[in-house]
Amino acid sequence: MRRFIIVFVLTAPLFWSSCTPHDSVKEISPEYFVEELDVWDFKIEEALTALLNELDLDTSDPTVSKVLDLMQGYLSKDIRAVALSYRTIDPLGNPVLATGAFFYPRDLKHRGIVEIPPIAHLDRGASAAIYVGRKRFYEEAFPCMLNYITINPDLLGVLYTQDMPRPFLHDANTGVVAFHMRKAVEEYLLITENYRLENRCSVFGYSLGGTSALSVAKYYTTNNTGIKVDQVFTGGGVYDGLEAFRALALVEKSDYLAVPSVIISMDTYYNLNLDYSKIFANGMENPVNSPDPAEGGDGYAYWFDGTHGSGSLFRRWGSDLRNYMHEDFFNREPVGEFLKLQDCMKENSMVYNWTPDPLLKIRLIHSSEDNLIPADCADLLYNVYKSKGCAIQYIRTTGDHYEAGTEFMLTAMLYLLLK
Fold first, then answer.
1. Which residues of the chain have pLDDT under 50?
2. CA atoms of 172 and 124, how far apart (whole Å)
3. Which positions ≥6 away from 409 have C-beta within 8 Å?
4. Is the Cβ–Cβ distance between 1 and 35 less than 8 Å?
5. 200-206 and 228-235 as β-strands: parallel, antiparallel, unpaired?
6. Do residues 62 and 410 touch, judged by C-beta distance below 8 A?
7. Which ranges in 167-240 belong to alpha helices (H)?
8. Residue 23's CB: how many other CB atoms inside 10 A?
9. Strand partners, 229
10. Of 414, 266, 235, which is closest to residue 343 (Cα–Cα)?
11. What is the pTM of this model?
12. What is the largest CA-CA distance in the chain?
């Protein structure tokens, strides 16, 4: 870990007023950037090999083959990955230290900037900054392999904020934390490379990252950020929490235990004071952080304390929502304790709380066979945005959530290469 020995970095307070553009590096007084955590240099060919191994892609597939052919000219390029910390705020407005990573060609001759928020990691051991520290390629950084500067905020709930629940589906906080990450990257590049980052970008994201991508684009375009968003590429997301709950209640199944995480997050940041005995069932309602049910443990307090990954959660609770959700969950409209969630879920709906500019291109992909997030959310987003005159395109594909995620990535890569 390396600190910049710069007086204003070491003495700057946690609070700030605003970020002002500067004409030279000597005048820079970072308001967001705090510390360089790790640096990792690699070639694009190394990242591509790691990605192909991770996704187990069939290189004979026409789309994969096309992408690989178009990438040949970039394979020898040097990429630098930087993990950093920066100042931002939590959903309650408290100042916190967040982390993230970004990737850029060492020669700084790039094709554009892509910002990609993370998927819904259920444990605190996975994030862009953590992966860079391990010198492991982060899949959501895939545009860097195509010669794009790629910014991956960790958002909150990891590293310095690991004791906080990840703020899943918190629209406003997602936008501001991502914006502060971008400002930290701007400051870092001015300090270390004497390079000024352009004021435009594309925003991509899949799964929870798909929802967050819309939040980032919304924040950039509805606040005085000075950033021009060229396009949004989103897929597999929960664009309206209540619609997702309705769809999941109908199918009574999900292979990913994100529902409890969303509820715990909303309860924490909206001070809902939920009675978990009326939210969960079959032991999931137990409030003690212990693996022993006799001590009041083995419930949400234990399994969602940030130390358990999606695999162990699935092995314990399975895909049947009736294994852990209270019977009131399985109603068409919120009843009982779930009524307390209604207002905050509405407040964070990307379907009803934002009308994108009609010139902003939005590309949407979701599988009709998604085993984690039903396509109802994407259908609703498309229909409502289309009725508002938004420039939205929708690919309703097939395959499970992960197969559709691979298609999302390949489609996005092909688009970026042909752009």
1. 1-25
2. 22
3. 55, 139, 142, 206
4. yes
5. parallel
6. no
7. 171-193, 208-222
8. 8
9. 201
10. 266
11. 0.92
12. 64
Contact 404, 201 (CB under 8 A): no
Residue appearing with tokens 């443990």: 297
11 bridge partner residues = none
Cα–Cα distance between 79 and 77 in angstroms, integer?
6
Query: In this predicted structure, what is the pLDDT of residue 27?
Result: 66
The Cβ of residue 331 has, within 10 Å, a number of other Cβ atoms equal to 13
Rounded to an integer, what is the distance from CA 336 to the centroid of its chain?
31
How far apart, in whole angstroms, are the C-alpha atoms of residue 177 and residue 168? 13
Beta bridge partners of 81: 40, 103
Tokens read off for 407: 């298609």
The answer to whether residues 190 and 38 touch, using CB atoms and an 8 Å cutoff, is: no
CB atoms within 10 A of CB 261: 24
- What is the C-alpha separation between 409 and 419, in angstroms, rounded? 15
Q: What is the pLDDT of residue 26?
A: 53
Q: Which two tokens stand for residue 238?
A: 């929960």
In order, the DSSP letters of 327-352 are GGGGSSS--GGGGGGHHHHHHT-TTT
Give the pLDDT of residue 143. Answer: 96
DSSP-H helix ranges across 22-127: 44-55, 62-71
Distant-in-sequence, close-in-space partners of 402: CB < 8 Å, separation ≥ 6:
none
Residue with the two structure tokens 């002002």: 20
Which helix (H) or strand (E) covers residue 417, if one does? helix 401-418
Cα 106 to chain centroid distance, Å, stands at 25
How large is the angle between the packed helices 241-251 and 376-387, nearest 10 degrees?
A: 140
